[in-house]
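for the writeup, i need someone to sanity check this before i put it in the appendix. the sequnce is what the collaborator sent (i think, or maybe the updated version? ugh). structure was predicted straight from it, no edits. if anything looks off just tell me and ill rerun, i have time this weekend
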Amino acid sequence: MRIVLQKVSDGSVDVVDELTGERDPTFEPQRIGVGYVLLVGVEDSDGARQIAWLAHKISNLRVFEDDNGKMNRSIHDVNGSILSISQFTLYADARKGNRPSFVKAGAPDHADRIWRQFNEALRAEGLVVKEGRFGAHMRVNLANDGPVTIIFDTDELGI
């Protein structure tokens, strides 16, 4: 799995109706305050091991400032929330040509299942998790706080 974590003071997502280009009325826009916006990419080899490691790591990551201005507090300590967005383009390979290849991105059924299981694992860690819509054209807005952006790639970690 690949995850881009952004510490935010505010984040939101809505879905675009592909026919009209307007906001899709079948999707209730989601919004969080302080917390993380997670862009989540899945490949076919991802499963329970990657989910468990990432959910635990993200839940306990200390990137929020304490009273001394040090990054020493977790998302739990600040009563933060998560906005989780599926994003297959994290597996883009743009080394050749000008059009990226997405062959490493997980098959849609698998990626959707793993993304949902990951979100449930975060909830099991005691976090409030709001979601975009898998496979949809989404508009994500966020105010990156810091800025703090951290990239996780379980392939590079050997998980």
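The first strand starts at residue 2 and ends at 15. The mean pLDDT is 96.
thx in advance!!
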